[in-house]
Amino acid sequence: xLLAILYPTLFFAxxxxxxxxxxxxxxxxxxxxxxxxxLIFASIFLKETSTSGQKIAIIFSVVGVIYIMYMNxxxxxxxxxxxSGLILISALVSSLYNVCARNLTQRYSLFTITYIMTLFGxxxxxxxxxxxxxxxxxxxxxxxxxxxxxxxxxIAYLGLLSSLVTSYLSNYALSKIEASKMSVFSxxxxxxxxxxxxxxxxxxxxxxxxxxxxxxxxxxxxxNYFGTKGKHSGKA
Length: 236
Description:
Elements: H1 2-19, H2 24-31, H3 34-46, H4 52-72, H5 81-104, H6 110-135, H7 149-176, H8 179-183, H9 188-200, H10 207-235
C-alpha cells in the first residue's frame, strides 16, 4: 500500500500539478536528480554500498540530462518556485519508490506488486475525477472523452504501456539489480524523447543532443560497470 501511494499516486499528482507551473524541460532537469536521491536513500534504508566510480558515473549521467534540457530550453527564462518544488517532491517520491520496490520485490510476486500499484492509481485518480465532476455538476461528461478514438488510443498507450507494462518491468529490474543501478536508466528517457522527436515529429537534431546523449550513455554504463567491478573486488 505504501508503495502504491508513492507510485503512481503521489508521483503523478505532484508531477502533473508541477507541470502546470514549469516547462517540461525545467521539470526534466529536476527529474534527472532521481538517481542521486535513490543512491542516498538506498544507502540509508537498504544499506546498499556504492563505489566512487558509481557515484561519479551517476553524476555524469545527470549532467548529460541537465545539459540537453538546458540547451532545449535556453530561451525560456520563466520559472516558478511552486512548480519547481512540486517537481522536486515528485523526484523524491520516485526515489523512495525505487527503494521500497527493491525491498518488496524480494518478498512478494511482481504480479501482486504491479496489480496493487495499478489498482491504487485507478481508484485514486478516478475518485478525484468523479469528485471534480460532482462538484461542478458535470458527471455526464465523465465518459464523454471515450467516444473520441484519438483519446482512446492515447489513454490505452499511457495506461497499458507507459504505466502498467513499465511498472512491471521496473519492478522486475528492481528484483534483479540494486535500486541505484536501476534508477540511472531513467535518464535514458531524455535520450529516447529527443530521438522520437527527430524521427516522428521531424524535429532538428543538434550537436548538443549528440554530446548529451554520449554523456548519458557513458554514465549509465559506468554506473553498472563500476557496481559490478566493486562487487567482484569485494568478493576477492
